[in-house]
């Protein structure tokens, strides 16, 4: 009975990851084409199966304490990065996450209509900025329509 919470936790985590993968497949299929989407999915599943087959049994050879230490350190690093971004957003130093504009940006990128502009931090040029003829970088200047690939 003590293993039940662990089993349920792992099941829920796997279900979340499966839903995220399904969302990515659906988004790629709807914005590009289904054939390449299914080909990419098949290759990804084959690579995953190969990695699990090759490395799965060897994980039992690792000392449990070292494994817990590495996984805990990685979780702490990722968690601190998310906390940093949340603090920056809450204080106004970083803009709030806009899902609608992120979706439009990703769809345009998937269709190959925009490109990354090189710089210290490569930013995606928004397609609607090209249509409206205004800077896309946000307040304080940004990237202009000249940077959009035609």
The domain tally reads 3
Indicate the proportion of strand residues: under 5%
- Quickly count the helices: 5
Q: What is the β-strand count?
A: 2
Largest sheet: 2 strands, antiparallel
- Our Rg estimate from Cα atoms comes to 21 Å
CA-CA gap between termini:
61 Å
Strand order of the largest sheet: 1-2
User: Which outline best applies?
Assistant: extended
Helix content: 55-70%
What is the string of SSEs from the N terminus onward?
Answer: HHHHEEH
Mean pLDDT: 78
SS content category: mainly alpha
| Low-pLDDT stretches | 120-150
Account of the 3D structure:
The chain is mainly α. It has three domains: 1-60; 62-94; 99-147, no CATH class. It is built from five helices and two strands; from the N terminus they run ααααββα. The chain has helices at residues 4-31, 34-55, 64-91, 99-110, 127-132; strands spanning 116-117, 123-124. It has a two-stranded antiparallel sheet. α1 packs antiparallel against α2 (34-55). It is extended, with a radius of gyration of 21 Å. The chain starts with a helix and ends in an 18-residue tail after the last helix. The relative contact order is 0.06. Mean pLDDT is 78; it is low at 120-150.
Short descriptors:
single chain; about 150 residues; two-stranded antiparallel sheet; 2 strands; disordered C terminus
Q: Mind sketching the topology for me?
A:
Blueprint: H1 4-31, H2 34-55, H3 64-91, H4 99-110, E1 116-117, E2 123-124, H5 127-132
Antiparallel strand pairs: 1-2
């Amino acid at each position: 009975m003590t293993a039940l919470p662990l089993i349920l936790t792992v099941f829920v985590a796997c279900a979340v990851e499966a839903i995220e993968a399904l969302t990515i497949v659906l988004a790629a299929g709807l914005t590009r084409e289904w054939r390449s989407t299914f080909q990419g999915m098949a290759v990804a599943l084959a690579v995953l199966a190969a990695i699990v087959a090759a490395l799965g049994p060897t994980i039992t050879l690792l000392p449990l304490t070292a494994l817990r230490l590495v996984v805990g350190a990685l979780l702490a690093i990722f968690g601190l990065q998310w906390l940093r971004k949340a603090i920056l957003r809450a204080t106004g130093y970083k803009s709030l996450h806009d899902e609608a504009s992120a979706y439009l940006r990703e769809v345009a990128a998937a269709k190959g209509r925009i490109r990354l502009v090189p710089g210290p931090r490569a930013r995606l040029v928004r397609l609607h900025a090209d249509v409206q003829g205004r800077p896309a970088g946000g307040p304080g200047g940004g990237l202009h329509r000249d940077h959009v690939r035609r």
